[in-house]
Amino acid sequence: MTAAELSALQRRLHAADGVAPLLARAPGEACAFCGYGHGVVLPIQDGHLVAGSDALEDPVSAGCRRRVAAAPVRLVDGTPEGEAVRRAEGAQRPRTTKPSRLGALLELPEPVLGAVAPEGQALAMVVLDTPRRGAAEERVGLYSHLLGLALGRAVMRDRMRALAGDLRYLTASAGALAREALESPVLVPGEATATEAFRDAGLGAGAAHEWREVLSDRELEIARLLAAGRTNREIGSLLSLSPETVKGHVARLLPKLGAANRVQAATRFLRLAE
């Protein structure tokens, strides 16, 4: 094993664009790096080894994954898989005193195991079988460690992607609210307030299912796009309307929903649509 091999493996693992692609790639990389014919990577959830959602090209590995999907394996102290997890999480003197539940399920007498534990918490298990010529069992622990580093990176990448989506939505909503404050027509409230009109329209707490009868089809479309954080210009582009036309629809939509602005309208629409 050379530094170049390790570096190349690490680059391939880190190139996975998220947790799911990484776990799909991991079994093949494990077999190639450690010298085994078949392998799976099983996530750990609620103290059990479970099957991932990745599709495996190797039919034997795919069969193992299906068996675990049908019968998740509980991690028990004293079993090889249970002790592999305890060792990865810092147990002082792990001891294997019981037969492998995973091996019995998969009909493997001695599966080679490596717990994937980024930051000291076991999240998955590398399971390998059928050693090839030149197989190196000692590489399994090293591979599991490298996979753990890549998994931590992939988790962070997925979280950043989700956060970026939330920030885009919040930015769009804030911008739309600011434009609404600047562009919406001035309305002088009369004796029948928006709340009263809302009640008269039959949209009280006990009749939220009738909101479709109050809003026109076009207003429903615009309300859904408002709830998605779209601006008037974006709504107009999607519905082939001018921004001024959209502005007029929004102005008529607000009192029907009992809302003072588009953010309130989006919130109330989402609540009624539940």
Summarize the helices and strands and which ones pair or pack.
Elements: H1 3-14, H2 19-34, E1 36-45, E2 48-49, H3 59-70, E3 73-74, H4 80-88, H5 101-106, E4 112-116, E5 124-131, H6 138-183, H7 194-200, H8 211-214, H9 217-227, H10 232-239, H11 243-257, H12 262-273
Antiparallel strand pairs: 1-2, 1-5, 2-3, 4-5
Helix pairs in contact: 1-6, 2-6, 7-11, 9-11, 9-12, 10-11, 11-12
Oligomerization category of the chains in this entry = single chain
User: Describe the biggest sheet?
Assistant: 5 strands, antiparallel
Beta content comes to 5-15%
Structural class: alpha+beta
Total of DSSP H or I helical runs spanning 4+ residues: 12
Low-confidence stretches: 191-209
Rg from Cα: 28 Å
Within the largest sheet, what's the order of strands?
Answer: 3-2-1-5-4
Mean pLDDT: 82
Distance between the termini: 58 Å
How many strands in all? 5
What is the percent of helical residues? 55-70%
Strand and helix order: HHEEHEHHEEHHHHHHH
Polypeptide structure, described:
The protein has helices spanning 3-14, 19-34, 59-70, 80-88, 101-106, 138-183, 194-200, 211-214, 217-227, 232-239, 243-257, 262-273; strands at residues 36-45, 48-49, 73-74, 112-116, 124-131. With 274 residues, it is of the alpha+beta class. Mean pLDDT is 82; it is low at 191-209.
Give short descriptive properties of this protein:
274 residues, alpha+beta, 5 strands, 58% helix, 10% strand
In short:
This protein has 274 residues and is an alpha+beta fold. Helices cover 58% and strands 10% of the residues.
